[in-house]
């Protein structure tokens, strides 16, 4: 470990240290298991990017079983316009399945290291991809987390290709999220004054990328981040976070904690939904968010991104014609999901990708 644990004040060859860390195939958890007391230089962020004090603000909690349909639609619109984030309850996914999904993420990351290493790769064609920091070689400062991910819709891998310790729950949870996504896209369509099936007919609800994030306890959380500030590049994100939390959103230049609410699922608007819908006076917001590092851990998150990501595609997304007029012209040029995701991989987390689509 000596080759990748240089102190803050020593000079170092970043490229070599990144390569050495990656080649261990044990990720951040491997560093913690080795008993490090100082984080490697590659994880140290500039002081101005480290978390400052947060302010209190209630994140809307929307009851999807509410019998007042018009009220539900209005609440989703206001939350999506204002914060870009909201939580949903009575969403149809049993709490037992939610808890088991989080446990499945934990089991994957805490299984025998030799088994886990078999999934460690940076090859995007693999059915399951496990690594630490997808943008490790392009970012200026790595984040204190490991993850694994796979495309669970529309063309999921075979059960045999998924990790044994979490395959059953990953398959079941993805099915549940697809149902929830269908409902959310119908409600968002209505909120925008469109036909309920509009976004579904655009295939916004067809693809799911499932991620299992693992944030080990950090010995120096004041120097690094669990996830640097960024927006999500898909249409919509469905997130489970454990009781420790750590997720924050940027609102009016202040950071707001997103609490871990029992039974609730966090929903946030992604870039592609904003690019498809945002016109000059604004509609939905893809908001910057981050995850702080913490001495408490490990923490686990299960995130499902509605997007076809790197799957080959020719379907083009751009401002919805029904929402564009002479008074409200389109502000973004068209793109495919594939090309937009390639931009994410090339630029890394935290780069404001929507700027590249601005007209």
Automatic annotation (TrEMBL):
Pfam family, one: 2OG-FeII_Oxy
Metal-binding is among the record's keywords: yes
GO MF, any single term: L-ascorbic acid binding
Residues covered by the Fe2OG dioxygenase domain: 207-308
Protein keywords: Dioxygenase, Iron, Metal-binding, Oxidoreductase, Vitamin C
InterPro entries: DIOX_N (IPR026992), IPNS-like_FE2OG_OXY (IPR044861), IPNS-like_sf (IPR027443), Oxoglu/Fe-dep_dioxygenase_dom (IPR005123)
UniProt keyword Ligase present: no
Family label: Belongs to the iron/ascorbate-dependent oxidoreductase family.
Protein's name according to its UniProt entry: Oxoglutarate/iron-dependent dioxygenase
Species for this entry: Artemisia annua
């Amino acid at each position: 470990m000596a080759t990748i644990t240089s102190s803050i004040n020593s000079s170092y060859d970043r490229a070599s240290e990144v390569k050495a860390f990656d080649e261990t195939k044990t990720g951040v958890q491997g560093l913690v298991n080795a008993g490090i007391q100082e984080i490697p230089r590659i994880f140290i962020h500039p002081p101005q990017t480290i978390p400052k004090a947060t302010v209190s603000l209630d994140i809307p909690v929307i009851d999807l079983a509410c019998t007042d349909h018009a009220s539900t639609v209005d609440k989703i619109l206001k939350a999506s316009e204002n914060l870009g984030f909201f939580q949903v309850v009575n969403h149809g996914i049993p709490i037992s399945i939610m808890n088991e999904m989080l446990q499945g993420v934990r089991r994957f990351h805490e299984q025998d290291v030799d088994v886990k290493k078999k999934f460690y790769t940076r090859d995007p064609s693999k059915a399951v991809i496990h690594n630490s920091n997808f943008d490790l070689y392009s970012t200026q400062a790595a984040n204190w987390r490991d993850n694994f991910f796979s495309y669970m819709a529309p063309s999921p891998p075979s059960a045999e290709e998924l990790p044994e310790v979490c395959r059953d729950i990953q398959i079941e949870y993805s099915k549940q999220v697809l149902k929830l996504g269908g409902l959310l896209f119908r409600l968002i369509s209505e909120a925008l004054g469109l036909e309920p099936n509009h976004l579904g007919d655009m295939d916004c609800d067809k693809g799911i990328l499932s991620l299992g994030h693992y944030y080990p306890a950090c010995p120096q959380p004041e120097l690094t981040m669990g996830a640097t500030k960024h927006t999500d590049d898909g249409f919509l994100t469905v997130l489970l976070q454990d009781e420790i939390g750590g997720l924050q959103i940027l609102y009016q230049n202040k950071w707001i904690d997103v609490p871990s609410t029992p039974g609730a699922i966090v929903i946030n608007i992604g870039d592609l939904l904003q690019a498809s819908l945002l016109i000059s006076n604004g509609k939905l917001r893809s908001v910057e968010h981050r995850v702080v590092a913490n001495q408490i851990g490990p923490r686990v998150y299960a995130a499902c991104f509605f997007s076809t990501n790197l799957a080959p595609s020719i379907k083009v997304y751009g401002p919805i014609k029904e929402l564009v007029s002479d008074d409200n012209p389109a502000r973004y040029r068209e793109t495919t999901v594939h090309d937009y995701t390639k931009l994410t991989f090339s630029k890394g987390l935290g780069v404001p990708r929507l700027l590249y689509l601005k007209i």
